[in-house]
Amino acid sequence: MIAPAKNRLLDILLADDGSLDAHSAIQFLADLPHEYECNVTALRVFSPLESSTYEQVESQTEKTNDLLKSYNFHFRSELILGYPVDTIIEYASQHASDLIVMGAKGTGRLAGLLGSVASHVVHSGQWPVVIVRQPYNGIKRVLLVTDGSQASRYTCDYLGAFPLPKQVSLEVMHVIPFVKTSYLVEPAGLVLPMLTPEDETRIKQENEIQGHDILERSCFELSLHGLYAKKVLRSGDATEQILSYIRTNQIDLVVCGSRGIGNLTGWLLGSVSREIVQRASCSVMVVRSPAVN
Fold first, then answer.
1. What is the pLDDT of residues 196-251, one digit of tens each?
2. Any idea where the domains of the chain sit in the sequence?
3. Structure pTM?
4. CA dist list (Å): 268 to 4, 151, 175, 211, 216
5. Among 267, 159, 276, CA closest to 207
6. The two domains 11-132 and 141-292 share their CATH topology (first three levels equal)
7. 174 near 143, Cβ under 8 Å?
8. 141-292 — its CATH code?
9. Would you state the pLDDT for residue 6?
10. DSSP H or E segment with residue 11
11. What is the predicted pLDDT for the residue at 183?
12. Which end of the chain has the lower number of beta carbons within 10 A, N or C?
């Protein structure tokens, strides 16, 4: 039984660092339809190493507040001395945040491929997290990736209840894994494949049927929320197929779960989702399923 996803965003935590990516995260939030009761907390954490630049931090915080005001958000601003990862996670826990939104790259000491703070919050936290990347041009095409696991089904349900903008084009993607042939080495030194060509063909056909079933089920679950999704079935390496599809189809937001169903049949096991978060050319939403924690 899949636990029902929470479908109201009433308390959103914006992890602010004054960067352009953080400002893009505010634009992302502005593109979502919100209920009147929704409140955004702009949390700026500055480390002891940044204490000498407090005036600059204050100035950046005011720019963030002005931007939130310009979009008519109900918000509060928090400026806390501490270490970003620990403070963000602790704050989200204490205030029961529904969603954490943050930019992909930090500034100064926090800069990097993804940003160590964003990476740690995604993989250490217990909340849905959206990592917003530049250039941000709105939310027009959304890709949900699924491996058919319980975590993926929860993510599908969560996305169905998520307040997406109207006129969004939604796609659901599953990647059929390679059929790996194992080999048996006999005492005489002969190397023999453990699968016959007929076995390989049969397994490939079974995987394809299962892939279609996974997509059909996902699309049906989304339809219960009034959403229509295009089915995308690919085969090969899951990470590379997903990243290639994102690049070539101008995806604005990719949505994935944080865990899969096992080493043999699930590919959203941390390694794939981690690579998507690190390397995707678009914004990423990672949904942590309470059913598998």
1. 777 777 778 888 999 999 999 999 999 999 999 999 999 999 999 999 999 999 99
2. 11-132, 141-292
3. 0.85
4. 20, 9, 11, 15, 19
5. 267
6. yes
7. no
8. 3.40.50.620
9. 47
10. strand 11-16
11. 52
12. N
Is the domain spanning 11-132 CATH 3.40.50.620? The answer is yes
* 5 — pLDDT class (breaks 50, 70, 90): very low
Interatomic CA distance for residues 33 and 284, integer angstroms: 18
Alpha carbon dihedral 166, 32, 39, 87, in 10-degree steps, equals 150
Identity of the amino acid at 287: V
Q: In the structure encoding, which two tokens stand for residue 82, read together?
A: 């501490």
Q: What's the CA gap between 85 and 90, in Å, rounded?
A: 9
- Tokens encoding 221: 């679950």
Question: Of 106, 96, 133, which Cα lies nearest the Cα of 16?
Answer: 106
Q: Is 132 helix (H, G, I), strand (E, B) or coil?
A: strand
Contact at 8 Å (CB) between 260 and 151? yes
